[in-house]
Automatic annotation (TrEMBL):
Coiled coil: none annotated. This is Glutamine amidotransferase. Gene3D superfamilies: 3.40.50.880. InterPro entries: Class_I_gatase-like (IPR029062), DJ-1/PfpI (IPR002818), INH-QAR (IPR052158). It comes from Streptomyces aurantiogriseus. It comes from the Bacteria.
Length: 211
């Protein structure tokens, strides 16, 4: 089974690493990082780079597609090379997935119209523009499409899909070995729980302000 994790300039590292560390532990699976060209690709912080070992052209039909999000997603929304690869890969994929604003790229490719999906909380209203039934759930499965909310939820998505493919016990083993047992020091991980002034501050600065 081949898992293709998409890279583009200014993607968010954890969006890709979470699924890689969980879903990438499928038995006999090959995880490949892909981009338009095989080259180092910088994350949104600029201080970290991942290597895309293969180009889109070299990975035409992966079994699982994982699309991360991040600030760089905005400039990719009209990237015909990426969008066409997503459509082509999706035509034969067993699962097509995303983390954070990666779902907007799937939507821009026309893959989520009429489906339930999620994204980062700041991007949910924008997702609706593509005919998507946007939901605040952390992980959403609609047919073969599995979308995750913001950044850290990519770990949950990976475990969810891992359980579907390899069974609950295998997913539990991966969760145990990665010691994924969240006990955050603050209960501010969603706009429903965070201080209202912080929510409004980030809404006012969001690149997803609707006009």
């Amino acid at each position: 089974m081949q898992i293709a994790i998409v890279l583009f300039d200014r993607f968010t590292a954890l969006d890709a690493v979470g699924p890689s560390e969980t879903l990438g532990r499928l038995p006999d699976a090959e995880t490949v990082f892909v981009a338009e060209e095989s080259r180092p690709v910088r994350t949104d912080t600029g201080s970290l780079a991942f290597t895309a070992d293969r180009s889109f052209a070299e990975v035409p039909s992966p079994d699982i597609v994982v699309v991360p999000g991040g600030p760089g997603q905005t400039s990719q929304m009209e990237n015909d090379v990426l969008l066409e690869w997503l459509r082509t890969a999706d035509a034969t994929s067993t699962w097509t997935t995303s983390v954070c604003t990666g779902s907007l790229l799937l939507a821009a490719a026309g893959l989520l119209a009429g489906r339930r999906a999620t994204s980062h909380w700041l991007a949910l209203d924008h997702l609706k523009r593509y005919g998507v039934e946007a939901t605040e759930e952390r992980v959403v499965t609609d047919g073969k499409y599995v979308t995750a909310a913001g950044v850290s939820s990519g770990i949950d998505m990976g475990l969810t899909l891992l359980g579907r493919i390899a069974g609950d016990e295998h997913a539990q083993a991966v969760q145990l070995l990665t010691e994924y047992d969240p006990q955050p020091p603050y209960d501010a991980g969603s706009p429903r729980k965070a201080p209202a002034h912080l929510v409004e501050e980030f809404r006012s600065k969001s690149r997803f302000i609707l006009t």
